[in-house]
Design a protein that fits this description.
Elements (H helix, E strand, L loop, with lengths): L4 H29 L7 E16 L5 E5 L7 E2 L4 E5 L2 H58 L4 H54 L2 E3 L4 E6 L6 E2 L4 E18 L11 E5 L8 E8 L4 E2 L13 E9 L11 E7 L6
Antiparallel strand pairs: 1-8, 1-13, 2-4, 2-7, 3-6, 4-5, 6-8, 8-12, 9-10, 9-13, 10-12, 11-12
Helix pairs in contact: 2-3
Length: 331
């Protein structure tokens, strides 16, 4: 019986050849057609921006006596940036502290008067009780002819005077009670004034509300500072972004949250990670200050790319570029 071993060997050789061809196919394709094309990208350009706060004094008006920093200085949150003359506000605090002591003493005095009025009313009630008993006894005795009319009238008058004294002292007790309430209200007001004075005194010191870089110093020593008068601008370098513009034809391939790679001429070769956080819904004409790497079109859309800036290397106004991978077209 003849065994077809050569045909089986030929089939095994064919499979091996096909496997080698499949392995070599990518290399052959790269040799013939070059490397495969990656996702299409666009390069947008713009300037770094940051959250910026205008710092000024609140509710105080006085000459500046302390101004230690110049523009471009990095400061941490809570750093003292400026002070104004505070003697007037300290004096007001001392005056109101004195008024607070007077208000506390007034409460004690009025409470003492109230306790005395309570005791007077209590004594009047005992007196009213006793004079009424005397009057009732005198009424029985005069009917029996045991006392004179004059003695009876005297008992009546004494009882009436005791009732009137009780009514008067009860009214005075209410006045004393009201005086205590007013004194306590005055004490609350005095405490509030002292608290307000302390807050106002704290406003004579201007502190950095967050860590950042001083942008513009708009005041000098000796100048009169007041509410709304700018002293510094402070840039928040923990939250920076790139303002750029996308051509109308590329807008449909850009999505919110899409990553972007940001580079600057200041730090060649260094890349910063960013993500698209805003895409304008309205088109505008290309700003004259914008320079793109593609041919300009009539209409563009503003985008914002938030950038991680942990080392605070990216500063407001710094020109930067961003490479964005465009999404593939839909079916």
């Amino acid at each position: 019986m003849k065994i077809p071993r050569p045909r089986m060997a030929l089939a095994a050789g064919t499979v091996l050849a096909l496997a080698c061809l499949l392995l070599l196919l990518p290399a052959v394709r790269r040799f013939l057609f070059g490397p495969p094309a990656g996702p299409r990208t666009i390069l947008v350009s713009g300037n770094i921006e940051a959250h910026q706060s205008i710092l000024s004094f609140t509710d105080v008006e006085a000459p500046i006596v302390y101004l230690p920093f110049d523009e471009g200085r990095f400061v941490r949150a809570g750093t003292v940036l400026a002070r104004v003359e505070a003697r007037l506000y300290r004096q007001q605090l001392r005056i109101d502290r004195g008024n607070l002591q007077v208000a506390r003493a007034q409460v004690l005095v009025d409470q003492s008067n109230y306790r005395a009025a309570q005791k007077t009313v209590l004594s009047d009630r005992f007196n009213v009780t006793q004079t009424r008993r005397d009057y009732i006894r005198a009424t029985r005795l005069i009917k029996a002819g045991a006392i004179s009319r004059q003695a009876y009238d005297q008992a009546y008058t004494t009882a009436a005077q005791a009732s009137a004294a009780l009514a008067r002292d009860q009214a005075l007790l209410q006045v004393a009670r009201d005086n205590v309430s007013l004194a306590r209200a005055g004490l609350v007001t005095a405490k509030a004034r002292v608290g307000l004075d302390r807050v106002t005194l704290s406003y004579t010191t201007l502190r950095a509300p967050f860590s950042g870089v001083l942008g513009v110093r708009e005041a000098e020593l000796g100048e009169l500072a007041g509410p709304g008068v700018a002293i510094f601008t402070l840039d928040d370098l923990d939250h920076v972004w790139l303002r750029a513009y996308v051509n109308e034809r590329d807008l449909g391939a850009v999505r919110l949250g899409e990553p972007a790679t940001v580079t600057t001429d200041t730090y060649p070769g260094k890349k910063y990670h960013g993500r698209i956080s805003f895409i304008s819904s309205e088109a505008q004409f290309t700003p004259k200050t914008v320079e793109t790497h593609a041919e300009r079109v009539t209409l563009v859309y503003r985008i914002r790319i938030d950038i991680d800036n942990p080392t605070h290397e990216l500063l407001p106004g710094m020109p930067a570029d961003a490479r964005i991978a465009l999404l593939p077209p839909g079916p």
